[in-house]
Amino acid sequence: MPFANDYKPTHFTLTETSPTLWRVTFDNPPVNVIGPDLMRDLKELLTELENNDTVKVVVFDSANPEFFLAHYDLAADPAIAEALPGTTGYAAWVDILVRLTKLPVVTISAIRGIARGAGSEFVLATDIRFASLEKAVLGQMEVGFTAVAGGGATARLSELVGRGRTFEIMLGGEDFNGELAERYGYVNRAIPDASFETFVDSYATRVSKWDRRVLVDIKSFVNELTLPVEDVFPRQSDAFWAAAARPEFQSINAQLFERGLQQNSHIERNLGAEMGRTFPKPVSES
Amino acid sequence: MPFANDYKPTHFTLTETSPTLWRVTFDNPPVNVIGPDLMRDLKELLTELENNDTVKVVVFDSANPEFFLAHYDLAADPAIAEALPGTTGYAAWVDILVRLTKLPVVTISAIRGIARGAGSEFVLATDIRFASLEKAVLGQMEVGFTAVAGGGATARLSELVGRGRTFEIMLGGEDFNGELAERYGYVNRAIPDASFETFVDSYATRVSKWDRRVLVDIKSFVNELTLPVEDVFPRQSDAFWAAAARPEFQSINAQLFERGLQQNSHIERNLGAEMGRTFPKPVSES
Amino acid sequence: MPFANDYKPTHFTLTETSPTLWRVTFDNPPVNVIGPDLMRDLKELLTELENNDTVKVVVFDSANPEFFLAHYDLAADPAIAEALPGTTGYAAWVDILVRLTKLPVVTISAIRGIARGAGSEFVLATDIRFASLEKAVLGQMEVGFTAVAGGGATARLSELVGRGRTFEIMLGGEDFNGELAERYGYVNRAIPDASFETFVDSYATRVSKWDRRVLVDIKSFVNELTLPVEDVFPRQSDAFWAAAARPEFQSINAQLFERGLQQNSHIERNLGAEMGRTFPKPVSES
């Protein structure tokens, strides 16, 4: 029973590989969007991990071989997620990511399939990112929606890949495959898919056997040295939500939904490229 | 008419690919040194871009296939450039680079040929650097002149390539080809020359179609997170000019001019290597 | 006579390649652990270099082809090293590394063989790290001893390799070969062993001929931009020594010594892997 309060997550599976190593497998068909239900599950997980003093490592992966986490759920009423309780006072998605970075637990993303937008932001907020060389796709396509990324991708990327590559990723909104993501430092390493599971399991198992206290101390020192000044996160979130309220964003969103957004569709699989062909319609047409 | 004030640049060509995408092609034969005339052109360009609210992306390239920007013009009277009007109060070259980083416009260097010294500093102050795999050469050879780089290369490199590689680049003064420059993060990416133009055009065109407001917001957030504390720039500039006034610098400069500096010469093409064979002459010989 | 005070180091050889280029060759058989005698030698070297105004470059290498610096001497009485005079007020190892980063001299690690734990911290505190592609091994295995690294590896790595890779290195405690160390930015470059010496000599010789004043200025500017806030070092050192006093650390240490630690043994050569098979014994067995 991983959750002390008997909470039953509905949008991911939680597997207790051992008392010190947990696996969270996202499972929100058809493409693993990040909606209010998954966010509720994540907030319950965070509360559990903030208080559990046994678990040492959590690996995040996906039940869907094509999608790790597609992106934020653009069809959901944002008020539902914002009404979920949090601990930071920030908007729901920021609350989740800021708490994730500070957990007294090592978090590892095992990225197979697509992680764009908020899905990319989720992996950027875990401690370590391992990617399948052939199957991982990462990107921040918010620029194509006329919005800045709302979950702090700009801040987390700039620490990992430097100013120039942050500009390229955030201003271009393109997809990055595993190989290029490694070259840029967007992920720790891209591992050939045939050995991906073995590699991740081996690393996670190893870490899960160390002394818990030293893992907490290392996280604390690295956090102190590398986390951005936190006030950047609510400001980027506010900028996202301001953009999302504008007609340009809504015009693009409506067009993409007509073409299959949030389905396992051509447009969702190729969203990096498709964004560059989708623009706000003039007000008279919209 | 890109310039609202009808200014006619003489040392670069400005092409309006579209109202939102401009191309600046450096053209100051024989090797594109950065002298007072080119600096005047750049300052006029900055003023235009600071006030133009249509253009979104500017690509910088070179009309000379061997030289992107060779380096600062070491034959010119520095007083001419320093007399040009600026907005920051800094020395002319610092004024240009600091304003370049803050433009409400995306700037991309398309580097074919040599970009050393101030030429390297120019590309480091643009948002994104794409380099020809076979034809790009970057370097900061000021150490060989007995000077620190005056336009902030030390600060901009350390954000991109980290402490160890910044030391190697700045203390060695050697040339870096496109492949190694990418490996170090000195450039975003090195692209095979055969597809270089297509790659750069495709990226720049894509960005030039996004909402202008979001591009400005992204630049603002990345600048806040990654620009160095600004007072380092005037201090590095002062250190450069102090060195340039010393007899050691002038002895090396004189020797290099005798051997063809600022011409399309063996020494200018191989300046990284040649610096290591050129030392100040004893005072009695100079 | 490199040492002005005629000090004779016993655990490294100091070679004056030229008045401006020195070579320090670690030689503390069987595996170059960092014990009180080597630390005394290093402190004398630092004092010499802090006061010598001729030498410009110091290259650090090893007389042992398999070990650059194995790690801290875990058999020595720490009180001996702590009793050595220092200038910073910090614990002995921190005193050495902090002073090393601030020397008015360029420091280059020429890494062949193993540099783990404090050995890795030593190379991280030099300005530039060149590694043999085939023969270098780096790692921070302190986590396996239930301790954080005490000499600031966390801080120095995060500046070089970014947050995600710092977590992977520090939390995993695994070995990194030259190729992967370069990809991560842990070293500047991995050079094929056949050309390693030529490469390092060529770079070091070149730098040793530049104007000394400009080298000092460059170091000063890069230090200002890239050194961490210094108070992190004593706190990490304290955390290491607190862990070293605990029974878990001592149990692992005892087990490893029984199996050949600090000898040229299987376990010392494969310490990254072996750590993952060695855990504290329950108190009743220890």
Automatic annotation (TrEMBL), chains A, B, C:
It holds the Pfam family ECH_1. It comes from the Bacteria. GO terms for molecular function: catalytic activity. InterPro entries: ClpP/crotonase-like_dom_sf (IPR029045), Enoyl-CoA_hyd/isom_CS (IPR018376), Enoyl-CoA_hydra/iso (IPR001753). Belongs to the enoyl-CoA hydratase/isomerase family. This is Enoyl-CoA hydratase/carnithine racemase.
